[in-house]
Amino acid sequence: MLCAAMATVLQGPHAQIYPLEKTLSNPSLILEYQFMTQSQGKRFAKPIIYKENIQWNPESWTVSISTMSYPTQERDLERASRLEDILSRPIQTKSVVANPAPLGLMGFALTTFVLSCHNAGVIIPQSAPHTVVTGLAAGYGGLAQLLAGMWEFSAGNTFGATAFSSYGAFWLSFAVIQIPAFGVRAAFVASESLVDYNEALGLWLLGWTIFTFMMWLATLRTNVCLTSLFFSLSITFLLLTIGEFSLDKDMTKAGGIFGIITAFIAWYLALAQIVNKQNSFFELPIGPVARSDHK
């Protein structure tokens, strides 16, 4: 918002004060500036410098101005004359971006929950096709998380950008593997190497296990919920990896159970970032582990 600032107390009946515009991008910002008065195109013998404190009140949409005037030395005239040019320059403001983390967490949680129920044999048997999961993986788990990661880049959150973009890519790659049109599974069936197919999936899951473990290391000083989320996800990937390499359905089922736990932690963490005193009657604790040293 551009606010035209003009002194309310003038020295002399013909004194004029140049109106100056300043972008108030920070509600708590106090602007201090100086400018010189003129009278009928003729300078005062003792020029007056006006110093104003301007404070923006976001609740009432008003600007409070307090003015002080005092005689100045001749050496200050040049600085005062340059001030209007300085303040008239455009100021770059940072646009407000909503927190994309809840979207990414919700997309991750729902897709993980459905796939984990499939792996654990809960509601959906293990032998059933991944048709429903594939749709979620491509849309909500894949696209929504990838977009959340891009918005985290814009917000300057390196961890969130890396996590959401990577797991969005994970779900997209999962969808590619499951969609028959891409021919991933068909290539192994044609070569009569279904065992190699499971080993290939195991290698794929092993890579994500290593990645998730590294991301877990980056959460150790954040909060209990985030640390628990990546720890549980690491165990999930590890069990699923072992299940694919060994063709052990019990290991896959155990991975599904841990995946369900992971999904509920992600849902909780997402809800904790959505609810607040303005839109709900409660807030959810996330258990801070360590406070940042930066103030």
Automatic annotation (TrEMBL):
<feature type="transmembrane region" description="Helical">
    <location>
        <begin position="224"/>
        <end position="242"/>
    </location>
</feature>
<keyword id="KW-0812">Transmembrane</keyword>
<feature type="transmembrane region" description="Helical">
    <location>
        <begin position="103"/>
        <end position="124"/>
    </location>
</feature>
<keyword id="KW-1133">Transmembrane helix</keyword>
<dbReference type="GO" id="GO:0005886">
    <property type="term" value="C:plasma membrane"/>
</dbReference>
<dbReference type="InterPro" id="IPR000791">
    <property type="entry name" value="Gpr1/Fun34/SatP-like"/>
</dbReference>
<feature type="transmembrane region" description="Helical">
    <location>
        <begin position="131"/>
        <end position="148"/>
    </location>
</feature>
<dbReference type="InterPro" id="IPR051633">
    <property type="entry name" value="AceTr"/>
</dbReference>
<dbReference type="InterPro" id="IPR047622">
    <property type="entry name" value="GPR1_FUN34_YAAH"/>
</dbReference>
<protein>
    <submittedName>
        <fullName>Uncharacterized protein</fullName>
    </submittedName>
</protein>
<keyword id="KW-0472">Membrane</keyword>
<comment type="similarity">
    <text>Belongs to the acetate uptake transporter (AceTr) (TC 2.A.96) family.</text>
</comment>
<feature type="transmembrane region" description="Helical">
    <location>
        <begin position="254"/>
        <end position="275"/>
    </location>
</feature>
<dbReference type="Pfam" id="PF01184">
    <property type="entry name" value="Gpr1_Fun34_YaaH"/>
</dbReference>
<feature type="transmembrane region" description="Helical">
    <location>
        <begin position="168"/>
        <end position="188"/>
    </location>
</feature>
<dbReference type="GO" id="GO:0015123">
    <property type="term" value="F:acetate transmembrane transporter activity"/>
</dbReference>
<feature type="transmembrane region" description="Helical">
    <location>
        <begin position="200"/>
        <end position="218"/>
    </location>
</feature>
